[in-house]
């Protein structure tokens, strides 16, 4: 379907371009032909019509509605001027096209004006376009089916082009609704040059061939007119000589001469068929009249318009046109006074008979029209004998050749060769019409082929771009950068440098402003980074907010200065919509030494250097050193070992008692994860817990700890009434299924809800009170208590404490360490404790390691204490012994 639309777009554009070029070239030719005295192919006004129609077709296809409306309005005005004859008044030489054609242009202009102008515009556009196409078909059929399709009053060059192009033009608006505008514009970009070139050649070829044909016709017309003039001159020369000799004899004869003149004139009248009548005048009286062979009345010779000519007659032969409405003739006369009386001898020659005898021997495709001195028009054959009709034929015919001729006696004639046999001419016109049609088809196919090829190329480029370019930043993808690195590593001993860039603190931008703003930020950062990229510098996006810059081999290059420049570009204040942002970045640099590494390992080392820069506080850069990788290698190894331990359930639970400050009894125990390797070595929680949180293994770890702790502590809970405290990390809390799984485990073990404490970090508790309430609603309703662990390490306001949906506050050990004396004064700590008591929170002090600390916090009214002073974390067996050795609350 898309290919069909492309073909239709190519067809519509070809129709518009070809019509426009025919108009443009026609206008040029209309100005050139008068300079060479050639017959016109197009007149200016007809050519201008093509310019308007072609412009409208191109504008409509490309959805340029303003231009389409303008062309439509001008075309409507133009057609009205044609219909009412205004153009003929402007230019008397204008060839008036048939009224039906002018009407058709007006109807066509309505389709241009109404296209997509209102809801039901198709009710006007479709019928008008169909009318145009059908009228074009009508003229094409008549041109091919009949030789007498038009009279000589039509310009067949215009008619042949008009018929064909109206078919092409009329179909185009019918296709506009099927043409996708984007498709049409792509076709125009891809093939406009080719379509214009082909259409220019075709239109130029048509004008050249038509001009050659017209030149040939003009030459043959001149020959025909010249032959006619010579034949007339020959006929008149013979008679003129005879009359001249007669005049000499009469003048030389003794007086009276009248009888001699009558005898000689009668003999001439009888011997010369072309001589229609003889009249002898004395003054204004007719003394003798031979009568007319054609029955003509020549008394009009007595009219005043002939007086001057008759009065100026001498004894030399003079010639004058004596045609009237009844008969067309030429009169020859001389003066031969008789006995002192002026005597005029007038000899009337029948011009129609003269021309009929001439045309009988001429068999070419032309008929000739003779203009006598008083604008009387005579024709040789195949044309009307009416002067007015002949005048119109001369003005409007396609091929009329004018030839000025003088008879031997100096009498001027204007000869017109009018083409009347159109058979060979029409054959040539049809061939040239086929040339236009073939050119239009070829241009359409070429445009379609080029547009299709362009589309395929763009699709290939799109696929290549998708494969090599990032959708958001349009930087290269990681795989492309790796290919460039590998290529340079094979070519150079020192392939270049890799810069690994990570934006500092980018996640809060996504979380607070949304991914759309985040993507705009990434796009702007990418533009800044790659803004002045020189040759051999490749920019790519690694993932999320991480970028790669690969600088190919250079003789002189300072990687640290380059890294500083990259940082400066990132630090520039960023304005995205209404948000003003400040960014920093951490950059890792690795100089490729062409060792056994591949591109991915090179990038990994730059990543390691970046992590080192970020660990140092960010907003800086670090160059890779081998020691940096060892830390990450150990972390990777530990991660794998941790996964094995989880899969083999090597992670165990130790418990640290929490002592009631008032009674000194164990009121609860905190479940803590412990990992002992198969070699007996213990891995510190400070090592494997952060790794588990970074890798997501904390979810599986937490599930195992919860399951084991609930199962093991339940008997102690039933026997001694102790509660169980379980830690939830940020990753666990954000995980959708963790709380549901925890509730399921509680139900499965049948652990008392009111004996379970969930410890959250202060950062989690302060993120979203409503979120915490919603997530913990079910568990709190059933009696589970919520505790804030490590309170005081965050940035919360003390005034915010009362709003926390928690029951227990565990004060961090950083406050415990400040206490060195049981009777000491610690204002900040005492204020915090007072505030916590005021909001009715259960206070647990962590990190009790000395008797002084225990005494101080007991005196200050803390509810419970926890620390090495009472007990280190221990396994279940050790905990059971402690429970039996201490008086506990039943």
What's the structural blueprint in terms of helices and strands?
Blueprint: H1 2-32, H2 44-61, H3 65-83, H4 86-90, H5 99-114, H6 122-145, H7 156-175, H8 181-252, H9 258-271, E1 275-282, E2 285-289, H10 307-311, E3 318-321, E4 329-335, E5 344-350, H11 351-359, E6 366-371, E7 377-379, H12 387-396, E8 400-406, E9 412-419, H13 423-468, H14 478-491, E10 496-503, H15 507-513, H16 515-529, E11 537-543, E12 546-552, H17 559-571, E13 574-576, E14 579-581, E15 585-592, H18 599-615, E16 620-623, H19 626-647, E17 651-660, E18 666-676, E19 682-683, H20 685-695, H21 698-720, E20 723-728, H22 730-734, H23 738-749, E21 756-761, H24 762-765, H25 769-781, E22 785-791, E23 808-811, H26 813-816, H27 827-838, E24 842-845, H28 851-859, E25 864-865, H29 876-885
Parallel strand pairs: 15-16, 18-20, 20-21, 21-22, 22-23, 23-24, 24-25
Antiparallel strand pairs: 1-2, 1-5, 3-4, 4-5, 6-7, 6-9, 8-9, 10-12, 10-15, 11-12, 13-14, 17-18, 17-25, 18-19
What's this model, at a glance?
Helix content is 54%, strand content 17%. With 890 residues, it is α/β, with parallel strands linked by helices.
Architecture overview:
With 890 residues, the chain is α/β, with parallel strands linked by helices. Helices cover 54% and strands 17% of the residues. Strand 13 (574-576) and strand 14 (579-581) form a beta hairpin.
Unreliable parts: 149-153
User: Proportion of β residues?
Assistant: 15-25%
CA-CA gap between termini = 83 Å
Strand neighbour order, sheet with most strands:
17-18-20-21-22-23-24-25
Cα shape: rod-shaped
